[in-house]
Structure formats: structure tokens, C-alpha cells
Amino acid sequence: MGDKDKEWESHLRSLSSAARDSADPAADPSLLNSVKSLYELCKSDKSDELVARVYPLLNKIFHRCVASISQTQASSGLLLLAILQFFLDFGDIVLLDAEASLRTFFRSCLSREFADPVVAEASLAFLSSNKTKLLKAFPTLFPQFFPLMLKLIAWNGEKLKNSFLSIFSGFISPGSFIPLFPALVDLPILVVALEKVERSSGSLVGSSIASIQKSAAPEMLLALMDEAYTGSMIGDGGADSESEDSAPMAAADPIFLDLLKDENEGLAERHWTSPAMASALQAVISTPLSNRLKEALKIAPQLLDSYFKLAVYDANDSLICALIPLIMARYSTLFPDKMFCYEVQKRLLEFMLSAFHRSPHFIALLKKPIVDRLGEAYDNPGKTELGLQLCWAIGEYGGGGESHKDAARELFESLELLLYENLSASRLGLGEAAHGSGSSSFRKSSQSRLLCFVVTAIAKLATYHRELLPRARVSLAKVARSRLSDARVWKRAQDYLGLMNEPAICLSVLGPSTSGKLTQHPGTINWNEGHKKMIAHIPFYILGGQEGPPPHDFSILDILPTE
């Protein structure tokens, strides 16, 4: 018998002994080496007979190992991954569908050992090397377990970032596209939740958070019923709410349980109305941030970059249109870290505005959430900035386009209301407890900026939909006569009123960048239509500041041909 045959028989005896033994297979450190060696021998020899002899033993070991996970302290992740690799590569030979085994691994093993850095790194390496095969054979696997995958990167940090990004595209599917967005935005809060579990329950390695979730179901159901019928808030712990770290996870923080789930249930996130969430975040930011949380604050914006890039190429218009209201809702509800908020909000705005640029009709379809956000523009600086950008988008894209006149009228009325409210009283920042001259100056500056955006949006929207011009003139005239302390506002209104007396110039400056099939660049005039649209002097007065002969050699008739 050759050395290769002796090695084969030795490893096969090791597997056979482990399959018969009642002890936990993961407790034998030599078993992993035997599994890997037999896998390599089967792969190099390409013998179906050898595969058929090995498979029954590995199948027994796999199920015995899974059954003993909850009763042993030994890590079984690496052993199960080695067996899964065998199942994937030789499943066709033994007529095995590996999907059930993969799901069992995620639910029974990885849900308990995601905090083990060795198992986490090996799991991502396994998924990355088999990504193409897994996505082709089991297309729903990655999207279903993306919450569990996020735990890997949340707990183990930047050292696994590249491996995680290599499989990230597999998480995108029609069923996971919307739920994935809040999960990425809330990655730092996931770290807070995991650290909270660790403080209250001990090490996360070997413990099942899923069992905590299941035990909390009755309490959460009663809390939901109480909120629905009595109006009381979920998680209101009364006098005991301050002692959060010592309270059971299930009773104190129901909102955290949604973050800690292992599988995608296709449900949108809960609103940030839980007192437990507010107090937990306040406790976190009032103390030095952990290194793990600092890494999550850096990783989350990078994951959003990948998410939005994939959304542009892979997601259809229906999914993107459904995502935008969620983006608007989450814009001002982020983990309270200044740099994190800046990085995330910048990406949210860029994606939202690029979506409006690519599909202007989204503005008409989403007029209700847009109007709601404009009504919240006073609450805090984040909502004010979002309101500014929405005002710009409404004006820039004509409220959705020429075919959406009803939506444009409703958006125009919302802009009017926003304008009149700001003119009648300085309501900006009433939602904040702002005191002192510095806060007052900031509110006035924000209000002036908001008014400039609203005035411009009204002028642009009326230029696009000319039936709104009379109402726009009334609105702008009120601003021009108001003589606000910030002259930029009423002077801008005066400028727009003057432009409206010159329709061709107004259309060129304030009109849409596209009109039907023709491209109209803002700031230019279509001279071929001048004899039909202009009702005042040719705008050579813009050259009035220049001296000497005119810098042209053409006549008026060359510019404005007559019929």
C-alpha cells in the first residue's frame, strides 16, 4: 500500500470513528485536518468512488456536530465550513442539495459564533470563494441572511471589511433592497445593541441571541397591542427605565431586538420613538466610544457607497422610488455622531438628487412624502437641509415634468405655505431648545437660506408651468415688499419679478434644462424663437457696462428673422 493510500485510510478511519462516537465531533482537533485532507484527495484524484465513501461519514458528522452545538463550548464553525465545502464541490456526484446544510450552518452555528474572529474570517472567506456558485444555485441565500452577515462586520470591524465588500453585491435582491438600507444606516446602533447584550449576558461567542428574540415575542406583542389601543409608548419602563444595563434584553429594549435578528423578514424598521433607544444612545455618546463602535462609524458610509452604486445599476425604478421616502425619513434620524451624520447625509442627498435627475417624474409620484418633509423644515437643522434640497429639486425638475400639472400645483401650494409661514413668523428652530444670541443668529441665517431656496423654487416652477405665473408674482411681490433684515431674500424676489417681465430671458435663466426633445441650457437664449417670445427690448443692456464699438458685426435681422 502506497503512502497516499495509507494517508487515505488513516483519515477515513478518523472520520468513521467520529461518525460512530457519541462525543462532540468538534472536540477532536484532528478531525478538521482529516476532513480537509480527504477533500483534497477527492479533488486531486477526481474519483467518484472515493467521494461516495466519504460523503456518508461527513453527513453524519455534520448533523451530529449541529445537534451538539448548544451543549458544548468547543467551536464547530471551522469544521462545519470544511464539510460544507465538500458538499458544495461534490454535491452533484452524491445528488446532494447543499442549501439545507448551508441554512442549518447559518442558523445553528454562525448565529452563535459570529463574534469569534477566526470563525467570522473563515466564514467570509468561504462565502467569497464560493460566491458565484452560491448566487447561481441558491439566489435567495445571501439576501435572506444579510442581517447575520452584518453582525460579522459590526463585531469584527475593519479587518474583515474587504472580505465583506467582496460578497456585498449578493445581498441585493428585490426582497432585500429596501430592508438592507436601514440596516446599513443603523450599523453603529447594531454595535451598541451587541455590546449591550455582552454587558448584560456575557460573551457573545457561543450564546444565541435568536433565543432572546424568541422569548421576547409575547412581551413585544403585548407592548404593540398596548401602544395601538392605549397610545402608550413601547419600551416605557417607568421608574425602572434608568437601569437599562441590568434589565433583561427582551423587556427593556424591544427596538434592539429587530436589529439583532439573523434573517431578513422583509419588514421596514420601526420608528425611533422608543424611550429605550433614546436613552441608550444618550448613554453611549456621553461616554468615550468603544473602538468597535468607532470602526462601525467609518465602515457604514463605505457600505452605503457600495449599496447606492449597486442600486443605480441593478435596482429598477419601482424599488428606487420606494427607497426615496425611506431616505427622507432617515435623513435626520441617525446615530448622533457629527462626522458620521455628515458622511451619511451627504451620500443620502447625492443619491436622492441623482435619482430625481434620472427620473424627474419621481417628484410627482412622491409629492405626499415631499410635502410632509417640507412641513417639517422647522424642526431641526437636518430637516431644514433636507427641505432646502427638496425645494431645489422641485424647481429644477418642474415638479415632475409637463405631464404632471396637478402634482406641480400641489407642490407649488406647499411652497407658498412654507413661504408665508416664514414671512409671518420666524418659526425655524422652534423644535429645539435654542437660547442665546448665537442660536438666534443661526436661526435667522437658516431661515434666510430656506427663503432663498423657496423663492427660487417658486419662480422656476412657475416658469415651467406658466399657469402658475399669476400666483408666483403675488408671492414674490410679498417677499419683495417685506424688506426682511436679510436683503438677499427680497432682492432675489425682485430679480425674479423683473425676469418674469422678460419671458424669453426668464425661460432661459429659470426654465428647465430640457424641454421635450430639445436641450435648453440655463443661462442661454434660443434666438431662433426670439421673434415669437420676446416682448421687450433685445437684452443688449447686459453689455451696458462696456465702452467702445459693439463687439459684433451682425444686424438685428440676422438675430431675429421675420416671417
TrEMBL record:
Residues 13-27 have a biased composition (Low complexity). It holds the Pfam family SPG48. Residues 1-12 have a biased composition (Basic and acidic residues). InterPro entries: AP5Z1_ARM (IPR055450), TPR_AP5Z1_C (IPR056856). Residues 27-151 form the AP-5 complex subunit zeta-1 ARM repeats domain. Residues 277-517 form the AP-5 complex subunit zeta-1 C-terminal TPR domain. Residues 1-27 are annotated as: Disordered. Signal peptide: none annotated. This is AP-5 complex subunit zeta-1. It comes from Salvia splendens (Scarlet sage).
